[in-house]
């Protein structure tokens, strides 16, 4: 397996402790936004649905949605470069491409997460399978999580000028991660990460926009 430290081609795929447990073909679109949620997303809000285990309150299923005023290709590119992931993913310290398919249909990525003095650094290697630029399925193959699998889906809206980004995952973090830190991931860090991702994607879209024609 080859190693490329901080490669510019590795997916960010929400490295903050969001992880999973159902089949690798799981879909984010199995939840439909309510009319109120759709209005909230259209007004640049972030929808988060988290259902935590009643016993531990530290693991469970999370769904999220955000609309980004940039084409899916821009969002996909931002989500599949380590250099960009380091700009918006909380606590991400290192990102490496460990292996990949000759046709780029999948990659093995290693991430290192540092929560500071709260816990030891987390490391995990996950496989990402790409469905064109419309879906990214990821699952842990080794590392500190008890389980880690999920999906991102990118749906064009507004004639392709914007993207509805949907996410689903299940979290079962390492035992040494405090309960309050696991819950903070759902409540604060996921929405903040999505907002930061949107900010960077929209800035990229503006930079790529053609200059207005001169009136002279």
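-> sequence recovered:
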């Amino acid at each position: 397996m080859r190693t490329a430290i901080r490669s510019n081609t590795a997916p960010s795929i929400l490295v903050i402790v969001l992880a999973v447990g159902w089949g690798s073909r799981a879909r984010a679109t199995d939840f439909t936004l309510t009319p109120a949620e759709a209005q909230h997303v259209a007004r640049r809000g972030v929808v988060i649905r988290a259902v935590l285990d009643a016993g531990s309150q530290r693991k469970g299923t999370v769904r999220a949605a955000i609309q980004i005023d940039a084409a899916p290709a821009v969002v996909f590119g931002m989500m599949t470069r380590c250099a960009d992931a380091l700009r918006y993913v909380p606590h991400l310290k290192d990102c490496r491409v460990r292996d990949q398919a000759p046709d780029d249909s999948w990659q093995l990525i290693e991430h290192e997460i540092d929560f500071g003095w709260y816990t030891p650094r987390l490391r995990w290697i996950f496989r990402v399978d790409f469905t064109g630029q419309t879906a990214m399925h990821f699952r842990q193959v080794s590392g500190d999580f008890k389980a880690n699998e999920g999906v991102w889906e990118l749906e064009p809206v507004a004639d392709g000028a914007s993207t509805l980004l949907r996410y689903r995952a299940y979290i079962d973090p390492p035992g040494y991660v405090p309960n309050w830190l696991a819950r903070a991931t759902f409540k604060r860090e996921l929405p903040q990460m999505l907002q930061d991702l949107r900010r960077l994607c929209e800035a990229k879209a503006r930079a790529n926009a053609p200059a207005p024609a001169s009136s002279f």
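The beta strands are 4-5, 47-52, 60-68, 92-100, 106-113, 122-131, 135-143, 149-157, 162-171.
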